[in-house]
Structure formats: structure tokens, C-alpha cells
Request: fold
Amino acid sequence: MDDFTQFLTDPLNAQLVALLEGAPLAQEERESWLEMLPMLNDSEKKRLITNLQEEIIDFEAQEEAALSKLLAAHEA
Amino acid sequence: MATKRSYMPANDEPDKKELDLDSDDGGIESVEDSKIDVRLIQNALRTRMNELAQAESEAAGGDKQATKKLSSAVARFTAMLENLQDHPERAVRDEFRRVIERTVVEGHLKYLREGENLPDSFLEERNRLAFRKDVYNSLCAEGMFGLSIRDMLRGPRVSAQYEKMKKKLGKKFSLFERICEQYDGHNFRATLEGLVDDVSKGDSAYLGRVRERAAGRAGIGMEAAARVQKKLAAGISGSGVNGRWLTFLREGGDLALKVAGAGLMIQGSGLVALGGLGLYAARGITEAAGFDFGKIVSKGFKGVKNNAKLSGKKLLSRMTQKWQDDMDPELRSWLQRAPEMSSEELTRASLSFKNRLKILGRGMLPFGNLIKANAEQNVGGQIDTQTHEAEQRLHEICGSALKKYKSSDPLSRSTGQKKRPQTRK
Reply:
């Protein structure tokens, strides 16, 4: 198992990579966090996970509301 | 409906992937990419991990290329975080810009090319469903609607797949259908452009939350960056290898010495002569941190002869003032009063564990009162039992201390105990 594979077997790392992929972040920020991942400690990783989860939930709600509203306006 | 490009990044030169809605092939290059290219993750992480490994190895001598790279990567990260705090809404615009690129232009170019409005053939059921599959897959690629790349549908059996989409989308299915029904070329683009406007400007409460979370992330990142920078700076400014392992002495303090104690017992016979003082500490600490002790010895302690005598004062004198100032006060005061000791005394092959304990008992090395007390009690009998107990106890201490030490420090932990490929010749 190489270093990278081993890195991803850590559940926190794997979860963070998945969340960084899904979260509405500017690409620059997304890539920056990826670069920094090996240097974060567990407490920082956990805080980042919580933050990104909130970001995704909020964005999804926002996205759905905005789509509904705009489509309704368009149909009218 | 809004038509201006309000989704452009506010604080940057125009993105080279700017969506040109008037062009036939705008933004096509990126259609295959997800938000994160797997290769990008692998490369970014591998680069960073290699630099970390190299920086550790550079601490044992040689130039400091990787350390510098790592340091500038952290600086770039910090700059990004500052920017992030200033313009958090940029992320929201970026996100919707991606949606437009992928969902409308890239995903559906094949329909648009037929003309500005839908071709007649689009009205056929088969094409109608194929279009829905494209929209659905675009949403998956974008991670919209709670979908992910893993939910994407492939293959020709579209009507069966349509049922899958329905099931997967659940209560969002009707919204999905409405989006698809809106599709008529221009209008759908305009709808989504308006969406960008609406979301990135309209809801101040949402943007407020976005800002808060961005500030939260910046805080986490700044903390990590400061920690890493401090470590790197210590590695760079320390006086060579002495400085490096003294980083661990300083940071690990008492704990490091306990770890060193484990080194004494387990690897006592293999110890390399460096001068008595700090020998075990150096070995235990460096090996706990995944360093190659032999390499550090050969590179870092050149000129220290096997039978040289070292004292704490001498060791202190070899450190920079900053090192001395930063050092744990207890450790510093111990170094100042520790007596001179020859390397030979501690490392000659005939020296038994019992005798080493006696030396420790004389206060030569601060492995804790435990050993000292045991050694003192051992005078005149029962030494084997006592020694054995002391050894057991120390193993316990060292085991948990080592575990704690490693789990509390990712920079050390990432270099771990495992062998790392040599990055320098």
C-alpha cells in the first residue's frame, strides 16, 4: 500500500476528500484544502468536516428554493 | 430576466474557463472533470506528502528545498484564506457558474447545435428521455440535488433509467421535471442565469451564513498554517540536527525523555556512542518521530568523538540563543546542572542494564523519579525484582506516552514509524 492509498484509508481523510468534492467552494479553495490535508490534525479535520457539511446542506436548500422560485416566475 | 454575467469571480482576472453562452463550444474542455479530478487529489497530496518527507530528511542536513516549498505552500494557503474571508460569496457564484456550464451548455450542446430552439426530433419520447438522463447526469456530476457522481446512469436503456431517476430524486423529481420542461434553448439559459443572480445577490441571510462559515474555515486553516509554519521555522532555524532533535526535546519535554527511556531498555546494546548526555533522549525521540537515527548521528554529530565528554552546559552552548530561550525551563535547568559524562561510560558493551540503572540513579539522566527511586532502593539486594518492576512500569509509561505523543502531532505522525522511500540521494 503506498502512502497515498494509506492516507485515504484514514476515515477522516476519506470523508474530507468526499466533502471537499461536494461542497460549494471556489475551486481555488477546494484545491488549497486538498494540498493542506496531510498537515491538518484530527481536531482541525473534524471542525472542517462539520463546516463543510453545513455548507452543503445550506446550499442544497438554497438551490432548491431558488430553482422553484425562478421556474415559477418563468411559468407565470 | 438577468443576462449579465454576474457569476464572474469578483476579485480576479477573468477565469479562463469563463462561460461564453454565445459560443458553440464554450467551456467544453471541462465537461469530463468532476469538481475534483482524482489525479489532482493524488498529485496534490503526493506532492505535499513528499515535501513533508523531504523536509524531515532535510532536517538531517543538506539543502532545504522541500522545506522551502512546503513553507511557501503554507504561505499560499494563508493568502487563499485571507481572500476567502474577503469574498466568500465568490464560492456561491462559482458553484452556480459550474451548474450553468455543465447542465446547460456542456451537457446539452448536442441539442443546441440543432438550432436555437429544439429540433422536432426532440419531441420524440426517446429523445425526450435521453435529454432527461443528460440533465440528471449533469446534476450528479455537479453534486446538485444531493446527487453524486456515483448516482450517474449509463447505457442505452433510457426508459428503465428514467424510473431509476424518479426513485432517486424522490420529492425533488417534480422540480427536476419542471426544469426539463423549461428547456427550450434560450429560456433555460436565461432561467439559470437569473438563478445565479438570485442566489448570489438576493438572499442576504444565506450569504451571511456563507460568510460566517468561510470565516470559520479560514480560522481552522490559519491555525493549522501557523502550527505548520512554526514547525518548519524550527527545523530551518535550528542549529542543524542538534536543533532538530532539540525541537522534539523542547516540544516533547518530559514525555520525550520517557520515550527515550524505552529506547534505553529495548535497544540498549545497540546504542551508538555520541557522548553520554542526551544520547538516549536523542535516540528515543528521533526514532519515535520516524527519523533515521544513524543518519542523524553521522550527519549531525560530526566531530564528536566516541569517547568525548559532554555536559549539559556544553550542549546548551551549542544551541542558538533562541533555542535556549524557547526551551522548556525545567529541561534547561536540568541541562545546566547535569554533570559531565563520557559516552564510553554509558555505551560500552559490558555495561549491563542494572549498571545503566545505577548511572541513571545518580541523576545523570532525568528519566523520572521512578527510576531513580528504584535504583536507590535497590542498593543492597533485591535488585533484579526491583529492576524488573521498574522496567515493566517504564514500558507502561512509554507505551502510553508514545501513543499519546504520536496521536497528538500529525506532522510527526505522518512520518510515522514506517519506512519511507528515500527522497534524497
In short: Chain A touches chain B through 47 residues (CB under 8 Å). Chain A has a mean pLDDT of 78. Residues 3-75 of chain A form one domain.
